[in-house]
Amino acid sequence: MQHSEIMSSEQARYRWLHQLHQYGVCVVRNTPTEDKYVLSVAKKMGNIRDTIYGAHFDVVSVQNAHNVAYTQQTLRPHMDLLYYEEPPGFQFLHCLVNDATGGENTLVDGFKVVSELKRLHPDAFDILRTVKYTFHFRDAVNHMYYRRSMIELDNQGEVVGFNYSPPFEGPLDIAFHMVEPFYASYARVIKLVNNPDLQFRHRSDPGDLLVFNNRRILHARESFIGRRHLQGTYVATTDFFSTYRQLSTAL
Questions:
Q1: How many CB atoms lie within 10 A of CB 212?
Q2: Average confidence (pLDDT) per 10 residues, the chain, 251 residues
Q3: Which of 15, 28, 121, 177 has the maximal Cβ count within 10 Å?
Q4: Whether the Cβ atoms of residue 237 and residue 215 lie closer than 8 Å to each other
Q5: CA 5, 8, 11, 14 torsion: positive or negative?
Q6: From residue 90, how far is each of 41, 46, 182 by CA, in Å?
């Protein structure tokens, strides 16, 4: 979708949110490459979700990075901030500069991964929806910790969350007899996540704003050489649905 449409038309804003609700991802084109402009677009969805990274964050390569995202290295498929009790629902990544070689994004629909897992390996599906495992993050000022199952279902049995973030997993804390079945099930998920048929690749050019459901879509990045600067922010799932329902009623 075009940035100008979302910012000027309620109908277009509803179509944008509807696409995100249906497919979990949308690229907003021709977004002004201004510092912190990502916040202006995100506010069209809902309130900014402040985190330990602030109201917004800069994805650039730095020395002595405490997070692989702030290097030029490959970033494997994952979701953000699963060590929070309520991880952010929607993530925004606004490309300001990209003169780099490499650095292409890969997106994976976690709900499709779960659907395939249930179809092919129902026993693994049952294990990963019930067994809770650990996510954590620690630096000089934060020590985040939360345990959750990989697959979250609602009361009707529909998938509402897929929790996958290997770089931020902590020690496994489950009954001993479940360790081998858990890792065997996990291995099946890894195979699906890395299946090229379930992946979508996208190179962000300046002005591209990638928006996706952080509880559904895994994101990754190839290694790169050169300048690459993205700015990001988050909006909570609750705020997304509040705006989505309000617009669907008003229109």
A1: 23
A2: 96 98 97 98 98 95 81 93 96 97 96 98 98 94 96 94 95 94 98 95 96 97 94 97 95 81
A3: 28
A4: yes
A5: positive
A6: 12, 10, 28
